[in-house]
Amino acid sequence: MSYVDGFVIAVPTAHKQAFIDHARLGDEVFVELGATRVLECWGDDVPDGTVTDFRKAVQATPDETVVFSWIEWPDKATRDAAFATMQRWMEHPEEVDPRMDPARNPMPFDGKRLIMGGFAPVVDVTRGHED
Question: Which pTM was predicted?
Fold first, then answer.
């Protein structure tokens, strides 16, 4: 069964195009490492909650937009292998794919406030397909 990595990020609104450029370059690597789909979504209707919400979760400031992204993998093993490759790049920067090199493709947001996690789908309802 598929596996999904999800992300919530606060990106300076003024850096929208820089974020898109960064994502287009880096997301190609995820696909080459086996991802079946990468989706980057710029916040459009992100309401303030009473107790919590996306903006509070990433401590977004008024000049930032919340981005919701995910990577779909065919299975957890493919995702784990991709993450092992990226971990190796962190340990051996001379081997890093240039598209993932922070010096060449810097993150246009504060990575310390990025929220991420891996998820195993339990329900999948799509047109023409039900699990």
Answer: 0.87
